[in-house]
Design goal:
It is a single chain. By secondary structure, the chain is mainly beta. It is about 10% helix and about 50% strand. The protein has eleven helices and 49 strands. The strands form eleven sheets. It has a 22-stranded antiparallel beta barrel. A five-stranded mixed sheet has the order 10-15-16-13-14. It has a four-stranded antiparallel sheet with strand order 3-2-5-6, with no helix packed on it.
Length: about 1000
């Protein structure tokens, strides 16, 4: 017991000695320019976890064990600072603002500018951001992260395309997709580019930014800059991931008992079925046996499997003073949810920049991509309608081609040997070579020659026992080929000069774009051997068809741009471009597209020096006109088509008639005029930064395919008719929520709201009901009767007034005339969202990093195939729906009736319209970067391992289905679990 007091005395003495050895350092942190105190500056003792923050007066106090240590000062929006203590007990620290963000270089059309000097609406994304979400197509990785850019995935099939629109749909029938520029050259196949090869991505949205691309930039411009070589010894990077794909929710059809109940009720309605004893009257023998033995199958479960996605990319960068090289190889492999669905992509990239002399340099960016893709005719349509009784195999395990002795083919038919193949092989070569001369200070002359060579072939074989040929007696083979040569030759002159407080930049461009395409289509039926697939069409016994096609178009352009800067705070940009398109009519081929933009850097004014609210503040305004010639070549010409003709039973002759579409000799440019007002600002010393844009686009002379009366002898013509309008607001917010020594948390919030409407059509203010186009509404809407429910038993008298009875679908009498007809149809909803947004979070603690990304698309309607999957006769399977019976009153679905077909059921289409708004957790990624010290012995500079969950959770009123797909039950979207590795050495 005597030892305890002695031990306590020793402990207290040690603690007292330790406190006696600490040193208290006090001080104050201020702004180096204004002298204002800085609040919540992080003060850290270097190499330790000891730290503190400044108070409301900028003062701090910190205990350090060694008076010779180093303190580090970090504050958002200011340059980090280190200061030796050197025995001082009081320190006065002055921190300088960090303008690196404003000095970042942003790529614009045919040039670069500092972010602070931007006058247009441009969003820039660095390559590191693009790699956070493992994707087939790099555009999918920025879904919801770009204000004003709407991105959706078209389907869940391997290699599926991505739909991209910038600030809504301007055109009704012409293309609304943006222009992609890769290393200065137009490139249509953005899915070829691996995200690890990308240095940065810029999105040009307003007319002043896109005007320098003229007609090609009418729908927005997305500029991709790939990685280049760097001075120094070669650096090698290895990036790989492997992921497991699962279906992101798929609703089930009726089970066997549910289907039996539906069909019994359908025949009970007509009096043919009254009890189980009557089953033989409505089911065949095989089906009766299945009912008695409870034999049934969910075919979707047999068709949908887990997929696999993997990617392996290696990149090498290096160079000397004169030669810089970047080289990469990539292999991508994706297996879809179905058998016979697989995409393999092989690509190689080589970028070279060579300095030849002090005034001359040359270079090349090149990529070769090869696709080997097996696609599949989606089998789920067949699986969802086939009678679920019995199964795909008999008792001995043999495949049953027509289950239940019926006429519907087995949904698994295409998976059997030698039955179906759809294989595409594509080789795409992209080369962009340049020569740049700088004969005078500030003057550069550059010539770019870009060539894209695209060669593709597709072979399709469908045996007579395949789903597509189930009603035919022979097989069918197709062999399709296509080739494209896209040539871009552009000559660019840039001159910049500064005199006094004035700065001017002048850009001139002359360009020639040539697009040539040819294709062939070969078909034959009755292959002698299934193993010949589509390679021996000469052996086909019937159905032989041969077609070839050729398209060619050219675009010549002359462009000028002037950028003026006064005192670094008054900015002006003027652009003019003249385009001549071979697609349009003589006399209308050329058009001039002007634009102007101005910006005022308010934060640089003297009257802003004393304020502490805004770290940066800039006001922008722009106006410009862009054109669109996005129609097929030869739309101005009428064409002949061959028609069968015979004088009598024995004498046949060739005859020709005008094709379905008549040419238009007056076809001209579609024009869009856009006004944009924007505000860029940051507050709390850059801790919160935001960009807000309001835009208003008016499009006229739409390139619209108009339906003609049959009495004219032709069906359609493309004319310049109609007007549309898009206006909206875009908000992008970047915040630094936490920034300490080891922990940082940054967020990015994006909000986009676009109002899209048709202003006028061919007949001014008259709606085009046949095409579903309505004045004052978006281009894509749903127009139909408004479903109120189901007529109930106590409403029999009222229903009879309209010619219906209890159990029928009840719709609204819009005009109140006591009759239900086409005059009672209304616009039910829009297919485009009212608004969309994203919330991205990056959290770093020590060597760990966490990314959580949420995406929302609100206000859109979809047509749900599942909700409309109701066969009142019970001839096909249906979804397990709540249908009306005399004993079960419901307002969901009508009464089954074996005497009325699905197409004959009044108002049947109203069942499928649903609100398709959704919020989804798009990405959750957790990574760990190994400490640098641990890598020195193995000569590695960086190693990061990570796991990612992609498209994990979707919150929507549409259950068991991802509404981003748009309502289709084919090729459902997927969720993916990924493990990846990034290595640099």
């Amino acid at each position: 017991m005597k030892k305890l007091p002695m031990f306590c005395w020793l402990v207290l003495s040690t603690v007292s000695w330790a406190f006696a050895q600490t040193h208290v350092i006090k001080g104050k942190v201020t702004d180096a320019t204004t002298g204002e105190p800085l609040i919540m500056v992080s003060v850290q003792l270097k190499g330790t976890t000891t730290g503190t923050q400044t108070d409301a007066s900028g003062n701090f106090s910190i205990n350090v064990p060694n008076p010779q240590g180093v303190l580090t000062f970090t504050y958002m929006g200011y340059e980090a600072l280190s200061r030796n203590i050197d025995g001082n007990t009081s320190l006065n620290i002055a921190m300088t603002k960090d303008n690196k963000q404003l000095d970042e270089v942003v790529v614009i059309g045919y040039g670069e500018v500092k972010k602070r000097d931007l006058t247009g609406s441009v969003v820039s994304v660095k390559g590191a951001e693009l790699k956070k979400v493992p994707t087939t197509n790099v555009m999918e990785s920025v879904q919801g992260k770009l204000p004003g850019v709407d991105i959706t995935k078209s389907s869940g099939a391997s290699g599926a395309k991505i739909n991209v629109t910038v600030r809504g749909n301007r055109s009704i029938r012409a293309d609304n997709g943006p222009l992609y520029i890769v290393d200065g050259v137009q490139y249509q196949n953005i899915q070829d580019i691996n995200s690890n090869d990308i240095q940065s991505m810029e999105v040009l949205k307003d007319a002043s930014s896109t005007a320098i691309y003229g007609s090609r930039g009418a729908n927005g411009v997305i500029i991709i800059t790939t990685r280049k070589g760097a001075l120094g010894k070669p650096k090698v990077s290895l990036n790989t991931y492997v992921g497991n794909n699962e279906v992101a929710g798929y609703p089930s059809m009726m089970t066997g008992p549910q289907y039996v109940a539906l069909k019994r009720e359908a025949y009970h309605t007509t009096g043919r079925w009254n009890s189980d004893a009557d089953d033989a009257l409505i089911f065949n023998a095989a089906e009766v046996n299945a009912i008695q033995n409870n034999l049934w199958t969910n075919y979707a479960d047999l068709l949908i499997h887990n997929g696999l996605q993997q990617d392996y990319q290696v990149g090498v960068t290096g160079g000397s003073d004169k030669t810089k090289v970047y080289f990469s190889l990539d292999y991508f492999d994706e297996k879809g949810l179905f058998k016979l669905d697989r995409t393999r992509r092989y690509s190689a990239r080589l970028n070279i920049d060579q300095t030849i002399s002090n005034i001359l340099k040359a270079g090349m960016q090149s990529q070769v991509t090869y696709y080997d893709q097996d696609a599949r005719r989606d089998p789920l349509n067949q699986a969802n309608k086939i009678v679920p009784l019995n199964g795909p195999y008999d008792a001995d395990g043999n495949f049953v081609l027509f289950p239940n002795n019926g006429s519907a083919i087995n949904p698994l038919a295409d998976e059997q040997p030698n039955i179906y193949q759809n294989n595409s092989r594509v080789t795409r070569t992209f080369i962009n070579a340049y020569v740049e001369l700088t004969p005078l200070k500030g003057l550069s002359l550059r010539s770019n020659l870009g060539v894209t060579l695209d060669n593709a072939r597709q072979g399709i074989f469908a045996a007579k026992n395949s789903i597509d040929r189930s009603t035919a007696s022979t097989s069918r083979s197709q062999y399709n080929t296509g080739a494209q040569r896209y040539l871009s030759w552009e000559n660019v002159a840039n001159y910049s000069h500064q005199f006094g407080q004035h700065s001017i930049g002048i850009t001139g461009v002359a360009s020639l774009l040539s697009d040539q395409r040819d294709s062939s289509f070969l078909q034959g039926e009755g292959q002698l051997l299934p193993s010949q697939l589509y390679y021996a069409l000469a052996n086909s016994v019937s159905g032989i068809a041969v077609r070839t096609n050729y398209l060619s178009s050219k675009l010549i352009s002359f462009t000028g741009r002037v950028n003026y800067n006064y005192k670094g705070k008054y900015l002006l940009s003027l652009t003019g471009r003249s385009d001549g398109s071979s697609k349009l009519a003589p006399g209308n081929k050329w058009a001039f597209f002007p634009s102007a933009a101005a910006a005022w850097r308010i934060s640089d004014e003297s009257f802003m020096k004393g304020q502490n609210v805004f770290s940066d503040l800039k006001l922008r305004a722009s106006y410009g006109i862009a054109g669109n010639d996005a129609v097929s070549p030869y739309s101005t010409a009428s064409y002949l088509s061959k028609i069968p003709f015979s004088y009598d039973d024995t004498n046949a002759a060739l005859a020709y008639g005008i094709g379905n579409q008549v040419g238009n000799k007056n076809l001209k440019w579609e024009l869009s005029a856009t006004a944009d007002v924007g505000l860029d600002f940051s507050v709390l010393n850059g801790r919160i930064g935001a960009t807000i844009d309001y835009y208003d686009t008016h499009t006229k002379d739409l390139l619209l395919q108009r339906t003609l009366p049959s009495s004219s002898g032709v069906t359609t013509v493309i004319q310049n008719i109609g007007k549309t309008r898009n206006r909206g607001i875009e908000i992008g917010i970047n915040t630094t929520n936490i920034s300490t020594g080891k922990l940082t948390w940054t967020s990015n919030i994006v909000f986009s709201k676009n109002k899209e409407e048709i202003v006028s059509l061919a007949d001014a203010n008259t709606n085009d009901v046949a095409n579903g186009w309505f004045i004052g509404y978006p281009v894509k809407v749903y127009y139909d009767y408004q479903k109120l429910g189901i007529w109930q038993t106590d409403e029999a008298t009222e229903a009879a007034k309209y010619g219906y009875k209890p159990g029928n679908i009840k719709v609204k009498d819009i005009n109140g005339d006591g009759a239900l007809n086409t005059q009672d149809r209304v616009v039910l909803g829009r297919q485009v969202p009212t608004w969309s947004g994203g919330f991205n979070n990056d959290i770093r603690y020590a060597n760990f990093d966490l990314n959580v990304y949420v995406f929302a698309r609100i206000g859109q309607y979809i047509y749900s195939e599942y909700a409309a999957k109701f066969d009142p006769q019970g001839l096909e399977n249906s979804a397990p729906l709540d249908y009306w019976t005399p004993d079960h009153a419901t307002n969901a679905y009508p009464r089954p009736n074996s005497s009325v077909s699905k197409d004959g059921t009044p108002f049947i289409k109203t069942l499928g319209y649903q609100e398709g708004s959704f919020v989804k957790i798009r990405n959750i990624s957790l990574g760990y970067t190994l400490p640098a010290g641990a890598l020195k012995t193995v000569h590695l500079s960086s190693v990061r391992v990570y796991v990612t969950g992609k498209n994990l959770f979707t919150f929507s009123k549409v259950k068991d289905y991802d509404p981003e797909r748009g309502g289709d039950l084919s090729n459902p979207l997927t969720k993916m679990y990924v493990a990846g590795l990034n290595v640099e050495f």
